[in-house]
Write a structure and sequence with these properties.
Length: 225
């Protein structure tokens, strides 16, 4: 609860008064960002961005979300949960929430979740979606159309590509890249861009020209210190 109060206070402060690195530190401690991006420096992210292949957006022909098995067994995909009954959605809710109450069969019953996209706090897990930072459809049209099912399942359940967010914010984002949608909360643009670049780098996915421009713009938020 103390961490949540600190996070709320930080995000309620004008972004001109706090550095991007300080914001990321609080977000990381609260569990409000997906894994690795908080540990990647802006410089490293910029260099990784330059190495990504720039290519026109691929086709959605043949895409089916069910071809990316998701909410699989959490332990199998590296989530730190003690109950073998937990699926990946439940594991993400536990990682990203505060005061989470878990019932029989790893059912998440209640807790507190700060949505990093909107800065609003929710207590009902039904209000929370687990967002793929780089959406499945976006991955499909930037290289995942060539993957086998095992790699698609690993991608769909990767802790570094998943984040607990408010359901309406997630639906507004849809499968859009940063050239078409950015978090309303500008304070996380730095960590959002770093996370996006990390995922695309890890899975050898391409970016389109407009996407690269937008990611560079978002990385500029890291330099406002």
């Amino acid at each position: 609860m103390r961490r949540m109060a600190v996070l709320a206070a930080v995000l309620g402060t004008a972004t001109t008064l706090i550095s991007c690195s300080e914001i990321e530190e609080v977000l990381r401690e609260s569990g409000a960002t997906a894994g690795r991006e908080a540990r990647v420096s802006p410089g490293a992210a910029g260099r990784a961005l330059e190495k990504l292949e720039v290519s026109p957006t691929g086709s959605m022909s043949g895409y089916d979300r069910e071809d990316f098995p998701h909410w699989s067994d959490a332990q199998e995909f590296g989530w730190r949960v003690s109950d073998s009954a937990c699926d990946v959605r439940e594991a993400a809710l536990m990682r990203d929430g505060e005061s989470v109450v878990v019932g029989e069969g790893c059912d998440v019953e209640s807790g507190r979740w700060l949505d990093p996209y909107t800065r609003r706090t929710y207590t009902d897990p039904l209000d929370i979606d687990i967002d793929h930072l780089v959406p499945l459809a976006n991955a499909y049209r930037s290289g995942a159309s060539e993957w086998d099912e095992a790699k698609r399942e690993r991608y769909a359940n990767d802790p570094d590509n998943l984040l607990s967010v408010e359901d309406n914010a997630n639906q507004e984002k849809g499968d859009k890249g940063p050239e078409a949608w950015k978090p309303p909360n500008r304070a996380i643009w730095c960590s959002y861009a770093k996370g996006w670049i990390s995922v695309k780098s890890d899975y050898d996915l391409t970016i389109n020209p407009q996407e690269k421009v937008s990611l560079n713009q978002m990385l500029a938020a890291c330099k406002k210190r």
